Amino acid sequence: MPEQILARVEACYQQAEAFFKKPFLRPEVSFKLRGQKAGVAHLTENKLRFNPELYRNNREDFLKQTVAHEVAHLIAHQLFGLSIQAHGEEWQLIMRGVYELPPNRCHTYEVKRRKVNRFIYRCACPAPKDEFPFSAQRHGLVSKGRRYFCRRCKATLNYSGEQRIE
């Protein structure tokens, strides 16, 4: 799997070098990306990260569009600097002119949402009582002393002892 992505990254760089008639510094490539993003370009680190699960489920489009999309970010950065917009005209020029691909900002791959545990907090408002589902991270902060308040009654939100899976 990584070999195909690495080969496509290299092919994209060679296309850009032929188009602009100049060499580009090759990036570090990582396959440690999860969640909804298919790829991420870290401009100042010259690094690309790709989502292996989304690649497995969308190989053809991922290789063609996603890899070129992320490489185009690094090429645009090397050519024009940090002051450009992420999906601005410089990036679009590279997508259309160099790779002859539509400059789509986002992918349309199906993403499986993982189930998360929510900790239910409540306030002192009169009925109907509002529920405030906290993430495990926020619940952990409460256990370390952080306090959160209801915007309506200004009372501290308290853990109800209930949890639910979403």
From TrEMBL:
InterPro entries assigned: SprT-like_domain (IPR006640)
GO terms (BP aspect): response to stress
Superkingdom of origin organism: Bacteria
Segments forming domain SprT-like: 7-160
NCBIfam families, sorted: PRK04860.1
PANTHER family xref list: PROTEIN SPRT
Protein name as catalogued: Protein SprT
Gene name in the database record: sprT
